[in-house]
Design brief:
Elements: H1 2-19, H2 22-28, H3 31-45, H4 50-82, H5 86-96, H6 113-118, H7 128-139, H8 142-145, H9 149-158, E1 160-164, E2 169-171, E3 179-185, E4 188-192, E5 195-200, E6 205-206, H10 208-213, E7 220-223, E8 227-233, H11 234-239
Antiparallel strand pairs: 1-8, 2-7, 3-6, 3-8, 4-5, 4-7
Helix pairs in contact: 4-5
InterPro entries: cAMP-dep_PK_reg_su-like, cAMP_dep_PK_reg_su_I/II_a/b, cNMP-bd_CS, cNMP-bd_dom, cNMP-bd_dom_sf, RmlC-like_jellyroll
Protein name: Cyclic nucleotide-binding domain-containing protein
Biased composition (Basic residues): 1-14
Length: 240
């Protein structure tokens, strides 16, 4: 009897898996963008052991995700325990306001006291249409989806406009990462060692990996059309 129940359960699981929409899964976890970035990194580095390199690459992404999740869990736990006594609440408030303890929304780095002292919060006005476009772009990016509402609002406020013409180089392979970009209007192409890898269109994003890992650009990005971009710089990414 027990074996029959297990068999029925197994068949139900199989049917559920068969009925699942693969495209919905790919969209939910932004698999295409993740794989695209991994291929760009692989083409740029051209390691002798590509499988080992990819294992380490995805391991780093997973660690960043875990660190962010643990950080959010710690904050929630601290907020819950703070209500126990007035003294503990005061300590927790002080701790939550200590800048060095907060990590960037899209960076694994911890910023310094000097960076905090010199940073001035940016608020760049945007119309409703632009805010909707940025929101859609964030939902299409696995890393940005992990931002909480406060981080999301701060990043939206700080993003600045950049207009590029056809053929303009937006970033060069090997350069130090400065900005992360969201495409509002237009299309760009991604090149690795001069070879075409992919195109990115409206609501697409690029440039975040150099900010996350603190490494040089893994690819060159060139405008295929006149583009309207929204960008966020490295310091802002660190300080959110």
């Amino acid at each position: 009897m027990g074996r029959q129940n297990k068999n029925r359960k197994f068949r139900r699981m199989n049917r559920s898996q068969e009925n699942a929409d693969p495209s919905a899964y790919i969209d939910e976890f932004d698999i295409q963008a993740i794989v695209k970035d991994a291929i760009a990194e692989l083409c740029s580095k051209q390691p002798q052991r590509p499988l080992a390199y990819l294992r380490d690459y995805f391991g780093r992404l997973e660690q960043i995700s875990l660190n962010r999740s643990n950080s959010m869990d710690s904050t929630t736990s601290a907020d819950s325990s703070a209500s126990q006594t007035e003294e503990m609440e005061t300590c927790q408030m002080r701790e939550s306001r200590t800048p060095q303890k907060r990590r960037g929304a899209i960076s694994a780095e911890v910023y310094t006291e000097e960076e905090v002292a010199n940073y001035q919060k940016k608020v760049i006005p945007k119309d409703y249409k632009t805010m909707c476009a940025l929101e859609k772009a964030f939902q299409n990016n696995a890393l940005l989806r992990a931002c909480d509402e406060e981080q999301r609002s701060a990043i939206f406020d700080a993003m600045f406009e950049r207009i590029v013409d056809v053929g303009d180089i937006i970033m060069n392979q090997g350069d130090i990462g400065d900005n992360f970009y969201v495409i509002d209007v237009g299309e760009v192409e991604v090149l690795v060692s001069g070879q075409h890898v992919t195109n990115i269109g409206e609501n697409g994003t690029f440039g975040e990996l150099a900010l996350i890992h603190g490494r040089t650009r893994a690819a060159t990005v060139r405008a295929l059309t006149k583009c309207k971009l929204w960008a966020i710089d490295r310091l802002v990414a660190l300080l959110q």
